[in-house]
Design a protein that fits this description.
The chain is mainly α. It is built from twelve helices and six strands. The strands form three sheets. It has a two-stranded antiparallel sheet with strand order 1-2. The N terminus is likely disordered.
Amino acid sequence: MMPVHAIRANPEATGFQPDIAREAAIRYVLGRRCPQGGYSFYRTPEWGVEEPNAPDTFFALSSLRLLGVEPPQADRTAAWLSDLQEPDGGWPTLIIGWAADAALALLERGPRHDPQLWLRTLWTQRLGMANEHRDWRGTLLSLLQLTQLVRRHVPHLLPLGRGPLAHLLMASRCTDGAWSVPGADLETTAIALRLAQATGLQIDRHALTAWWRRCEDPRLGLRLTPSAGLTSAGTLHGGLEVSVSLGLQPRHLNVIATQIRLLQHPSGGFGARHRALATLQDTWLALAAANLLGKLLRENDHE
């Protein structure tokens, strides 16, 4: 194991250090690995709980990549992920399929069975639900995951979905240019923006920029909504993702760095908020936010 040191995102540019304990984060992620090869944030072998799942495995592998660490026994992990796919090419659920396929891609593997037929059917079903009452955040996230699967395996279907997806993005957008109804937040907006970009759809960049600026806060760095008094791993990651995509330079980079540091739990992982339970998903969100912050700092240093 490499010595403990902080992830430094060019601190000289602004005079601060994010102070993320890298080795502690590595120990946390590797400690979530189950004997089967997958990962689970709630793994407690002392209680006999060894239940890996596809999303946690994807978040763990993504975190290890951000930390510059090769996953141990990659073949065993890939075999476990491959076993999640059904013989007809589908997966038990969309979230399992998305996570398993994305995790296999990180390991430079593909699915064991061709998923094209399953994806064609699911693509048609999901795009045909445009007029149903829905939880917009969950809907947009599911559509993004499905779009990413389709892009990898049946990309020629994407043009056929642009019309329905544009309708859904318009229906779920608030009048202030962000997502979703009835009240926009940074996490959902980042999801919607990624969905629009993945399908080549245009957005109102001017309106979204004005709304994003109102989410900046001198105490929190970035807050969930323009009127919220809280931030989180998802908020910081989503807000930084939007800023990079729109070419915006945050005003409170040092505060954002402090907020990311405060998310790190004594276990080495990261929680959704300060002092919250560490999870693999929030660990990935925080590490990805730190990575985006480093990119913004480097750009700021070159100006």
